[in-house]
Design goal:
Two copies of one chain form a homodimer.
Chain A (H helix, E strand, L loop, with lengths): L11 H10 L6 H10 L5 E3 H10 L6 H13 L4 E3 L7 E3 L5 E6 L4 E6 L4 E3 L8 E14 L1
Parallel strand pairs in A: 4-7
Antiparallel strand pairs in A: 1-3, 2-3, 4-5
Helix pairs in contact in A: 1-2, 3-4
The complex binds manganese (II) ion (MN) (2 copies) and zinc ion (2 copies).
One manganese (II) ion binds next to loops of chain B.
The first copy, chain A, binds a DNA duplex (30 and 30 nucleotides) through helix 2 and helix 4.
Chain lengths: ~140, ~140
DNA sequence: TCAACAGTTTGGAATCGTTCCAAACTAAAA
DNA sequence: TTTTAGTTTGGAACGATTCCAAACTGTTGA
């Protein structure tokens, strides 16, 4: 049987506060999305969030979903994760961490930032500064 | 002034041999592309190779470019590198190495495989095996 | 309290990289 | 040669994302 699991969403007030703190005007749509993204660590696509908003009875235009995801990313409320050339994922875990990526089903799984260590990164070319070091551990069904 | 630089391409015979060794039928188009990809380490997109083939007087249909790049990748003559969700790059360096990625202009720069070291990769989830560990050092103009 | 404005949302069209398709072509086998 | 399986092709189709201009709505400050 299929076990249905409730996802922990945010209260509206909390969402509004979060948006204000990030300097974003708390519109109906942004509040709804901030609530849906909630607290738990998750990896979600634009299409996925669009669908969730619809199911939750607060439909939001797809263009707005994209706008919002990018604004949230800019505001460090989200982090964009690129693993394949197709779609991109947005990660509610903005802390230092890396990912397992399952090529078979497109799943992402967090790897704690303190678990993994990258050593020996050379000095970037003149005039460049390191922004972030991304590690993707590609796994396959064995 | 703009300095024009010659790129080292392969001889036709050498390209044919390489294709044969990889179990690929040496068609006119595949030989042309193998020649263009040549010996030097480079990062190229499908569109880029399509344009180069045209300029070199051996036009190849874009669909064939994609077919060929994927077949070459399958045959380990190339390696596919994903850095952004837009286009994907094909890397003539198939050895163990990683990349700097400049977000400003989309440039890729190799990092020797023996320079960088990733430690502490956790055991993959049950039933999964590590295929490859990709490190992308994102840099920005500073 | 409310007009005015800047910021935001919207549906739909447009873009873009990539894949699909079925017909024409060609390298290799017989 | 012929045959055959594999390959190429242009153009249509696709899916994710972005663009657009019109409608809407938080916020401000009179
Ligand atoms: Mn993006
Ligand atoms: Mn591919
Ligand atoms: Zn994550
Ligand atoms: Zn490389």
């Amino acid at each position: 049987m299929k076990v249905s699991r409730k996802r922990k969403t945010l209260g509206a007030e909390e969402a509004v506060e979060r948006l204000r703190a990030a300097g974003l005007r708390p519109t109906r749509q942004r509040v709804a999305l901030a609530q849906l993204l909630g607290d738990a660590h998750r990896h979600i696509s634009a299409e996925g969030l669009h669908r969730e908003a619809g199911k939750a009875g607060m439909p939001v235009a797809l263009a707005t979903i994209y706008n919002t995801l990018h604004q949230f990313t800019e505001a460090k409320l989200l982090r964009e994760v690129v693993v394949g050339s197709g779609r991109s994922y947005f990660d509610t875990n903005t802390g230092d961490h890396q990912h397992f990526y399952c090529e078979d089903d497109g799943t992402l799984i967090d790897i704690e930032g303190n678990a993994i260590e990258v050593a020996g990164v050379p000095t970037p070319p003149k005039g460049m500064a390191v922004d972030r070091v991304d590690v993707v551990v590609r796994v396959k069904r064995s």
